[in-house]
């Protein structure tokens, strides 16, 4: 969902300029240079594409290296991309050019689209025959995101992410606020006002720029994205408008909250974090993956609250999916599946979560002595996990992202331009509904 690109991108050797539509200017990544060919002799090579920030890339490569040393049958070769979107874009081009990798780490909707087109493997039979695989070992919120509505399994969740509240300890202490008292966004609004009034901090709170925070709040106010029958986009309901207008008021009228927007790459994200670390803002709403970059002597973490009394906290908990490409040979698919199980075993999920802050998908981490000791000493590490267990699963978007794009535009109007939420969301709903109607018509 985020993270700055540190390091250059791997040139996909057989992916030509005409295939990509333009020259990307990528160069071989440091990871692939260092780990691309060593100890391959006699092993089946499995190509793996993924993305992540500096810490995440290093941990993934460490796990890959350990896997390659752990057995003599397969060798996983890695290629890093800038972000999840670029991975998916290049993956589509590579599939068209018959140069796709064997396994890729992609977002849930991307995996679902490829599954519907039969471009990634259905793992249902493979899992059913595997006596050592148990679906119940995985957090259901995440495993369900690797399945379609007919039960087809198009991947295995690699890790999860959800946005939590990171508060400045000094700001809360100075204003006499107990972090555990924040049960609703109305409570947080009051806290933000107290922190600003205290005079030592410029802003009480900084929601992260974009539609994600606002969507979480709407869902925690009882809102939905689609109607139960899937025929109507419901992003301009009263629940959505109330939540989004709340943020518009806090940012533009009360000025107790603020956002950073624009800039290059993830510049806005890190400016937001810096404001909190540098005692300019009382806290911010950010990714579980931020934990690798935060100083927890300065900040603490708590779960996102409900919108108001009488509602439930239901922020989105998102899974990143490991999927096997359909055109890979059976031998390579077997190797990819073996690696996917290795990546998601308890030991590696503990390592992954402790190093990056992302949410582990294997329930067994809670019985791991090292992980429990770590989370007892670092309670912020367990906050995203406990939030994910009651989080919302963002529904599959049959419009291929039109709904999300419409929400992004609406969020900018509310957060940056100060447009009333009803106006912004009505327009977003109209755009999204048109796209959904076209999809439903095509299916008839």
From TrEMBL:
It comes from the Bacteria. Keywords: Signal. InterPro entries: Bact_solute-bd_prot1 (IPR050490), SBP (IPR006059). It holds the Pfam family SBP_bac_8. Residues 1-21 form the signal peptide. PANTHER family: ARABINOSE-BINDING PROTEIN-RELATED, DIACETYLCHITOBIOSE BINDING PROTEIN DASA. This is ABC transporter substrate-binding protein. It comes from Agathobacter rectalis. The lineage of its organism: Bacteria, Bacillati, Bacillota, Clostridia, Lachnospirales.
